[in-house]
Amino acid sequence: MSSRNSTDSNNLREGAFEVYKIDSIDNFYLVYAKKDGWGYKILSEKSNVKQCKKLVSLNEKFDFKLRSAKEVTVGAGDSIRNVYLFNVSCLVYNDTTEICIEHKEGLIAGLFIADNIKGLCLQNEK
After folding, report:
1. Which strand (E) or helix (H) includes residue 18?
2. Is 3 helix (H, G, I), strand (E, B) or coil?
């Protein structure tokens, strides 16, 4: 298996990721981070956090615990589906929010969820 294909697995990815872009769409933040030459598009649902000890911010490194967005378990009535069209891969949440990765974005390993961020707040920091 090539190194590019190995990034498509659903294994947990951990370590220091450098945040280089933060964006948003509908009810989600999109955090773009890089590690070991790969980019990661991290989805985080917008949320009000009462006490945030560490805010995710640009040009800083964070120890994210990532898993593939394909593994996400959602609540009753929610749905997530993957859409693949030629060189575009998308995740659609509740048939209303479509988040895609296009080849023009460079070496993006995929769409991920960080188990340790809520909104833009890093959780359980030691």
Report:
1. strand 13-25
2. helix
